[in-house]
Amino acid sequence: MAKKIVVLNGSPRAKGNTSALVAEFKRGAEEAGCEVEVFLLDKMNIHGCKGCFGGGRNEDHPCVQRDDMDKIYPSYRAADLVVLATPLYYWNFSGQLRTAFDRLFAVAECDPNYRNPIKESVLLMAAEGDEFEDALQYYQHLTGHLGWTDRGHVLMGGVMKVGDAKGHKELDAAYELGKSIAPQ
Ligand SMILES: Cc1cc2nc3c(=O)[nH]c(=O)nc-3n(C[C@H](O)[C@H](O)[C@H](O)COP(=O)(O)O)c2cc1C
Fold this sequence. Notes:
Layout: E1 4-9, H1 17-31, E2 35-40, H2 69-78, E3 81-87, H3 95-103, H4 105-108, E4 120-126, H5 133-146, E5 149-156, H6 169-179
Parallel strand pairs: 1-2, 1-3, 3-4, 4-5
The structure holds flavin mononucleotide.
């Protein structure tokens, strides 16, 4: 059966450096026989979590807020692997990714013990510099808390403007990482 992959791309730039990593990862994963769905979060109508602890009543739209997260929830539930793709913003994930990720809590609320669905995960990041330590530690903390299995990361430093990713070896690494996600 084809492995299902959901990519949460938190870059506001559809043709930027994070998106270049996503494109190569996707190419590799599809060649390996996976199904890949990419959500460009910045182009979607996604509001911040209200912290109401009132979700989880409907599996199709588990959050009390009704917005474009309703497009992500079914894909997220079905996914075997979740890719967190984001530019480095102030040593962390972008707000777009953080905002969407908070809203996935509503899926855990469907379980009486707030258990999260078990997934595999990948981290793809781009930055002007190369200070990824805090973001990587956060990713490891987050996925460890969720009980997810980390399949690897690609961190591409030295890229600022759209197009800077061209020729960077991390694009090859993203392709290879995608290719390594074999169907189950
Ligand atoms: C608000 C903001 C914060 C940023 N913070 C950092 C940072 O802490 N470290 C860094 O190396 N680059 C930082 N950058 C640069 C971006 O990470 C870099 O331009 C990256 O290539 C953008 O990825 P994108 O093309 O996918 O949008 C920041 C850029 C913005 C707009």
